[in-house]
Write a structure and sequence with these properties.
This protein is an alpha+beta fold and 209 residues long. It contains six helices and nine strands, in the order βαβββαβαββββααα. It has two domains: 131 residues, Roll (Pnp Oxidase, Chain A); 56 residues, Methane Monooxygenase Hydroxylase, Chain G, domain 1, CATH 1.20.58.290. β2 and β3 form a beta hairpin. The longest helix is centred in the C-terminal third of the chain and has 19 residues. It starts with a strand and ends in a 10-residue tail after the last helix.
């Protein structure tokens, strides 16, 4: 059973994949990629994007994005702080446009984007799926280590700017859970995150409470 594609019913297929609430994905726009939460409310999809992010700047001039669906935590750590190399992207034709996606993530949803609202801090962007490609999926039990390394990464993106000790404590706690409960990919993601924090002059001691 190989990768399957659904062009005709892209919206319906996308809603089979994305749950109600906030879905953590890797969003690619013009060879820029970053972890983001895609909000599903019934039959609508949205993102709230900070204006300080490269993604917000790009979406205002190029209204397309690819939502990459992956359970590899290393992608979340990498793209939280660095853009992938140009050779890691491949161009996919969607309608009359070529949109860059990450070559190594086989499940993705290409979307058109529309800015619905703009504040001093954020864009509220609506998403309309136009193409869906999904690899075979094996369901796994919930793993606290995987969830915790994602939480630690989210906190770390703010910690490098604010040095807020409360965020440091949260990172320390979640990395402890990740080390105890995660698989080798999770533990590698922990090392990647600690290395990046160290390069930014941030020292985190993992808590094993």
């Amino acid at each position: 059973m190989g990768i399957k594609e659904n062009k005709a019913n892209g919206v319906e297929c996308a809603f089979d994949i994305l749950r109600e609430g906030i879905n953590e994905v890797i969003v690619a726009t013009e060879q820029n990629a970053a972890p983001m939460g895609v909000i599903r409310k019934k039959d609508s999809l949205h993102m709230a994007v900070y204006l300080t992010a490269h993604t917000a700047q790009i979406l205002q001039r190029c209204p397309f994005a690819v939502l990459h669906i992956t359970d590899d935590p290393r992608w979340f750590v990498r793209t939280a702080f660095f853009d992938p190399d140009p050779e890691e992207y491949v161009l996919e034709k969607c309608t009359d446009f070529f949109i860059p996606r990450l070559r190594e993530i086989p499940s993705w949803i290409a979307c058109t984007c529309r800015v619905q609202n703009k504040t001093k801090e954020k864009l509220l962007v609506s998403l309309t799926p136009i193409r869906v490609v999904q690899s075979p999926h094996v369901f796994h039990p919930v793993n606290r280590g995987y969830n915790s390394v994602i939480e630690a990464t989210v906190h770390a993106t703010r910690y490098v700017d604010t040095k807020d000790p409360k965020l440091g404590d949260l990172i320390s706690f979640h990395l402890g859970v990740a080390q105890k409960c995660g698989d080798e990919a999770v533990k590698e993601a922990v090392k990647m995150l600690l290395q990046h924090l160290s390069e930014q002059g941030c020292t985190i001691v993992i808590s094993y409470r």
